Amino acid sequence: MNSTVLTSLIVSCIAMAVIFIVLVILIYTIKLLVHLIPYVEPPAPKAKAKTASPASGGTSPAIVAAITAAMATHLGKSPQEFHITQINPK
Q: In whole angstroms, what is the distance from residue 27 CA to residue 20 CA?
């Protein structure tokens, strides 16, 4: 074999060995850190107080009309073709 080819194969093997050694070191470093510094889930955010909606907890007719008009426009239908029965605010 040519000495250049042999030298290039040796250098390639050394480079691959170095890469895998570094990867193994990183894997075990991460595993060690997971055991030393465990993940602590942040506390859940406090629930916001619900705002008082008009008509004692119901949705105002103006809001229902606006939602109906927006849906009718989006769906390309007449507002009389469907009826909104429930609105759940999020």
A: 10
